Amino acid sequence: MVFSLLYILVFPGFLFLTVFALVAEYVDRKLCARLQNRVGPPWFQPLADFIKLAAKEDIVPEQADKPIFKYMPVVALASTVTAIFYIPIWGHDALFSFEGDVIVVLYLLTIPTMTFFLGGWYSRSVFSMIGAARSIMQLFAYEIPLFLSILAPCLLANSWSLSTVSLYYANHPWYMIFNVIGLVLSVVALLGKLERVPFDIPEAETEIVAGSFTEYSGRRLALFRLAISIEMIVGASLIAAAFLPFGLDLGAGWAFLLYLLKVLLIVAVISLFRSLAARLRLDQMMDFCWKVAAPFAFLQVLSNLIVKGLLAS
Amino acid sequence: MPKSRRVQVTIGPQHPALKEPESFLLTLEGEIIRDAGVRLGYNHRGIEKAAEGRSYVQDLYLIERVCGICSHSHSTCFIQAVEEIAALEVPKRAQYIRTLIAELERVHSHLLWLGVAGHEVGFDTLLMYTWRDREVVMDLLAALTGNRVNYGLNTLGGVRRDISTEQKDEILKAVDALEERTRYYIGVATEEITLIDRLSGVGKLSREDAIRLGAVGPTGRASGVKRDARKDDPYGVYAEVEFNVVTSDRCDVYGRTLVRAGELMESYKIIRQLVRAMPEGPITVKAPRKIPAGEALSRYEAPRGEDVHYVRANGTEKPERVKIRAPTLANVQVVSHMLKDGYLADMPIVVAAIDPCFSCTDRMIAVADGRASPGTLTWEQARMHGIEWHRERGLDFADLNRRFAGRGIH
Question: Does a structural domain hold residue B372?
Answer without folding.
Answer: no
